[in-house]
Amino acid sequence: MKREENTNETPTTTGTCKFCGQSRIIKTVGEVTQQEADEIATDECDCEEAKKHHNRECKIKKANEWAKLRFENTPNVLQIFSIAFRDVTNHDVESVTIKEGDWTHKVFLNSDGYLTVKSGKKVDEEVDFA
Ligand SMILES: [Zn+2]
Question: How far apart are CA 59 and CA 76, in angstroms?
Answer without folding.
Answer: 21
